[in-house]
Amino acid sequence: MRRPQHNTNTAAIDHLTRAPTELSATRHRRIVELLAETAELHVDDLSRIFAVSPETIRRDLRLLEQKGALRRVHGGAVLCQEILVQSYQQRMALLTPVKEVIPEQILQLSVHAEGQTIFIGGGSTMLALAKRMSDRDSAIFVTNGINVAVTLKRSGVHSVVLTGGQVHGGHELLTGNHVLETVRRFNFDVAYIDADALDADLGLLDRLESESLLHRLIARHSRRYVVAIDHAKFEASAPFASVPLPEIDVLVTDREPSEVVKNGLQLAGVRLVHPDSLNGPPCRAK
Length: 286
What we know:
Helix content is 41%, strand content 19%. By secondary structure, the chain is α/β, with parallel strands linked by helices. The longest helix has 17 residues, at 22-38.
């Protein structure tokens, strides 16, 4: 089968991404995030995820290699060995300011209360949220993020349950059946999770099937389901559909999404929260 030829729209996108624009900076941050989770990425996959040409991705990888964020290999890139052995907190420094905007907005929502049972996922956004929640009113937290659990427990305020499971991708996220078995034992008042992408029609998308299954299960076991994702996730894609939009109560992000995404959220009854949003109605209970 012949491959389709790149059209002038792709050429125009390439022209715009030659300069270090805000769009390319966001793409660079997401590439580093993805590498931190998978340790290796291929040019063709990144080209599909970000809807840019392979040459644009190669240029991104060259710039990131110059910054010491990764090492290029044939057909893609891997994390530098030095980055692989860094702590999760150190890797977050490569990512970051939006990771503080989202937790601040979640805290302003006052979604959960003292003594409640809460699921909080793994990943850099959830770790930033855990830091902000660590010394607040006591609660029971369940998580599959190793560093999230350590952060929440450090203050001595909370009861923290760390699921079992396999450590994925060289960083502090547990996956597999043991995670699902732990979650099935709980009825959560609130769940805080992130995802790899969001589609206006399909809902949340994940790159790992295990995370997709986990997010579906948590939605069934939670009275309130709060999704926290940065704006780059609206431009991304992933192979596994997990949670449809109507099952989400609140979506918190760092920037107003496109009209297509906003319309999809509105039709599904999802409350959208971002720095420029007006105060919406209280989060609904299931």
